[in-house]
Amino acid sequence: MSPRKLVIAIDGPAASGKSTTARLVAEELGYVHVDTGAMYRAVTLKVLRAGIDPADRAGIGRLLETTHVALRREGPETRVLLDGEDVTAPIRTPDVTRAVSMVSSHRSVRQAMVREQRRMGSEGGIVLEGRDIGTVVFPDADLKFFMVAGIEARARRRGEELRSRGITPDLKSLAEEIGERDRLDSTRKESPLRKAGDAIEIDTSEMTIEEQVRAVLDRVKSAAEGRT
Ligand code: CDP
Ligand code: CDP
Q1: What interhelical angle do 151-164 and 171-187 show, nearest 10?
Q2: Any ligand 1 atom below 6 A from CB of 130
């Protein structure tokens, strides 16, 4: 009998290593990878383009009625589609990063994204990563991980990412920006960032990417063996 296809949740703050780990774990298992942060970023891009204030709950609620966010697998990459347009690159700009926590705090935005995420995960065989996967989206996930890392390590990682895109980062302001986003995401009323009681915490500050992936895969293996 082939192993049951699991739902794996990975949550944690910015640059703790969720996306990298989730992508590689999904690849190894032949599972679908869902970067839920990319979905919130796509909505935020639409809000900014429409000239709507990220704090305008009613305006954003109306905009959502005609908004469609989808993830499309293309070889090893996942493309993010906003109303059919490929927005994989523009959702990573600093403007979107600055506004995304505010846009994501609205209940209407969360409801629309969570509905889509549950639909994608309904048959299992999926690794979802974000802030509220283990607490709200899939509270019954087969395995839950909560990744953390020190703020210096996280700012350094984001700095390296920006450098590779030709941008010279200021590490101090990067750390401040990450800290502020952690604060907003953890203190909001709707689905705040927090560790689920049954999540396994992994501190990646001193780990390599390979070690992070291995830590997750080892647990997946035990879970799959125990439940086939
Ligand atoms: O990649 P990075 O850690 O910078 O962030 P992300 O995963 O792309 O998420 C961007 C933002 O989306 C977060 O700071 C949260 O405000 C929001 N988000 C959320 O509210 N719930 C999720 N499940 C995922 C992201
Ligand atoms: O998804 P999240 O924002 O939690 O983090 P990520 O995008 O997976 O990782 C942020 C950056 O840190 C990426 O450029 C990774 O390659 C890098 N990194 C890591 O994830 N883990 C390490 N042990 C070292 C670097």
Answers
A1: 120
A2: yes
